Task: structure prediction
Amino acid sequence: MRIIIIGDGKVGHSIAEALITEGHEVTIVDRSEAALLRSRDTLDAMMVKGNGVNVDTLMEAGAPMADIVIAVTVSDEINMLSCLTAKRLGARYAIARIRDPEYHKSLSFLMRELLIDYVINPERLMAQEISRMLRYPFTGSVETFARGRVELMDFRLAQGDLLEGMALKDLYTKKPELPRVLFAAVERGEEALIPKGDTVLQAEDRVFVAADVLTITRFFKAIGKYISGIKSVMVLGAGRITYYLSELLLDMNIKVSVVELEEKRAAEFKEMLPQASVIVGDGTDQELLISEGLDHFDAFVTLSGLDEENIMAGLYAKRLGVRKVVVKNSRDNYMDLLGAMGLESAVSIRRVTGNAILRTVRTRAAAKKADAAERLYRLMDGAAEALEFIVQDDAPYINVPLRELKVKPEALLAVIVREGQVRVPFGGDSLQPRDSVVVIVKGGVQTLGDIFR
Result:
């Protein structure tokens, strides 16, 4: 596909890198020559210097023949106008990053009038991801499929845990009382594994499991990972993510306290969300955190603009014994280090944005294929993917026992949802029309049929 990316910042560069890897023809537009030179050295893409709103710039970038235009500059207004101009020139599909809460309530109108096909709000997506982590404090991440019926969660296996040293093929023989979940993936050091029956779980493994909501909750209770719900949260930084997150938490009747250094921003935040408690001060000051009772909060979320501040404050909260700590981190190479330091729940706005846009592009690329992915999540920093498909009426693999379909070695058919019922499939099961199917795979696939040999 021909794809134009307007804005060559961290997000734009990351998206371009992922799309080029998948074989798309990418053109990057930016006003900064320095940014384009950096990308020219590392990416196999065409570079166009100029404003994404300018007709001549978009013509040079090939907008009339573009399959997708993705506008991710720092300005919402430029992103919206770039999409409008590109669509008027003939681009087939337009994606705009729109972050300001002021635009949130009028998005439907803006999309219709400005010809925007898909809007991504990274801060809101990040807030939703964090809120799921806080609802399930025993897990590092939560992804949902089949309209929320299926959840995919991960947890770190500790020394002496019930599952340590257990081969998956023996698990339910030796532990028949355990609720049946699907072991979807295992991250061991730098290796990503699609588990088989002979996979033996080890201490320090990061294990991904999938099941319906009730079963997965019972499973975590049974292995001693379940913790009672979060009732109070302290947040560092009063930015956009904090605003969206606080809205979600307050709706869940969770007490929210926000620490903000700048008095003006703190006052504006308090005016926008009067139900939240706002503390003016330095959120990295240990004395301030102690005086405000951080050790009595159930969770601490660090959302300042500096990774180092977020990490140091998060480590201090862990030292105080706060049950759930979530840190914002923009550096991918920090993720493994943070896990080793005990900060399992680290979130990246660049990763959230890139994953959302990549899902949309993947779906568009396979738009002519009826069995294209409905949803896509990248796991373990992209080493594996979880995808949801809908089985089509004329699919050649309908009514064939799964043991006869021969799933590729690096793929796992994880969950089938049929008429609202969630089931972990076995060899004798078969796929039926309109089933929702969740697949875990290493290496990109576009259709459900791609996972069968």
Notes: The chain has a mean pLDDT of 86.
